[in-house]
Amino acid sequence: MEQNVKGTSRWSDERVEEVMGKLLIAGVLLAALVVICGGAYYLILYGSTVPHYRVFHGEPSDLRDLSSILKDAIRLSSRGLIQLGVVLLIATPIARVAFSVFAFARQRDHMYVVFTLLVLGLLLYSFIGGLYQS
Amino acid sequence: MNTLEFTLLIALGSFAAGFLGSLTGLGGGVVIVPLLTLVFHVDIRYAIGASLVSVIATSSGAAAAYVREGYSNIRIGMFLEIATTLGALAGALVAGILSASVIAVIFGLVLLYSAYLANRPKSESTSEGPPDRLATLFRMDGDYPTANGRQSYHVRGIPGGFSLMFLAGVLSGLLGIGSGAVKVLAMDQIMRLPFKVSTTTSNFMIGVTAAASAGIYLSRGYIDPGLVMPVMLGVLGGSLLGARVLARADTRILRVVFGVVIILLGVDMIFNGLTGRF
Questions:
Q1: Which of A30, A109, B40, B46 has its CA 20 to 30 A from that of B160?
Q2: For B176-224, where are the alpha helices, taking DSSP H only?
Q3: Which residues 72-101 of A are in CB contact (within 8 Å) with B?
């Protein structure tokens, strides 16, 4: 039965993996590009200051949750832009899992739709829950 | 040292870590935290946050090369990601309770274990027996390309593999590493997958596992943009270059050297953790 599903469906496992690979590369490249832009700007602004990582004080609240990071990035704050790149990077594997839900549904593989939704739920709980609760 | 010099040095160190990690198959993530804490005296919480972000970048970046070859098994990967994401959430929550010294000691022990795993002689032990009931139920058996055409394989030990994957997730969420060594162990030794299938499927899972705890680290303020920038870009660049060189490099000596470096870093982490220097 497995063979049959693979043979007739346009959404074979190989095809799904290929699309996933492209999705991941696109996400990483976009995230890296945003981080490079924000990073260059950050170094121009703060390059000659003294770094402070020896002591932990935690990031200010505007670099912790999604809506504040977006606001900072839109007004082109250098640290906000880097943080937006980080958010895009975290979102990349989550997008991959979301795409898998769709792909398994196209393959009519209901058991794996449920498994994948479970993983997606856990990821979104951390990503959105974590980013809004603070 | 000003921020510009500090950033360039960290980018250089991260590039080397990513390059060696990708060449030796150990991953750059395991040495980023010791590098940042022991060499650059960065607080371990910032270091773990930055490392976690770099792990997502390398896993997702490497996946494109792997998926085209058709080795990874997306069903096994997705099923086991239930265990690793649950573990990662638990690990990230526990990380908020434990003191920096305890985390450093656990990190050191994991480093020692990773060095041991990486240099242990490997024997391929694919399963020849009848199909496993659970594996059939979950439709996990598959095939992968070899020199003699596609070779099919059977999966077993699913409960054991699932449990070990939960542990891999906890370590990833607690220490900001990919836990690739533990993931491959679960799939090689317990589930009896062929090497190529377990390594590529593990790499596929690492990004999802790390993403599960990254949101929590971000909301706790552990992810500092000024530190993440050179670490993420350095490790990503280094690992992409490493993957290109890998095909024509003899990595035996390199694995031993990198293994020794990891052992020394592990001992140093444990010593500093026990003497309360974190």
A1: A109
A2: 180-185, 195-220
A3: 78-80, 82-83, 86-87, 89-94, 96-97, 100
CA distance B270 to chain A (A): 19
Question: Is B63 in CB contact (< 8 Å) with chain A?
Answer: yes
Domain ranges within chain A, ordered by starting residue: 14-50+59-133
DSSP one-letter string for B74-133: HHHHHHHHHHHHHHHHHHHHHHTTS-HHHHHHHHHHHHHHHHHHHHS--------SSPPH
* Cα distance between residue B220 and residue B146, in whole Å: 46
Q: Which of B43, B45, B67 sits opposite A21 (nearest CB)?
A: B67
B208-226 pLDDT, tens digit per residue, is 999 999 999 998 899 999 9
Amino acid letter, A37: C
Question: Does A42 contact B139 at a Cβ distance shorter than 8 Å?
Answer: no
What pTM value is reported for the model?
A: 0.90
State the average pLDDT over residues B52-61: 90
Nearest one of B54, B7, B115 to B239, comparing CA atoms: B54
For an interface test with A, the pick among B37, B39, B41, B56 (most A C-beta atoms closer than 10 Å) comes out as: B56
Q: Radius of gyration (Cα) for chain A, nearest Å?
A: 19
Question: Is B125 or A97 the better-scoring residue by pLDDT?
Answer: A97
Q: Chain A residues with CB inside 8 Å of B234's CB? A: none
What ipTM is given for this predicted complex? 0.91
Q: Is residue A129 a contact partner of residue B216, using CB atoms and an 8 Å limit? A: no
Confidence of residue A2 (pLDDT cuts 50, 70, 90): very low
Q: If we measure between CA atoms, which residue out of B178, B130, B182, B138 comes closest to residue B158?
A: B138
Contact B78 A119 (CB under 8 A): yes
Tokens of B72: 């990874």
CA distance A23 to A20: 5
Is pLDDT of B164 > 80?
yes
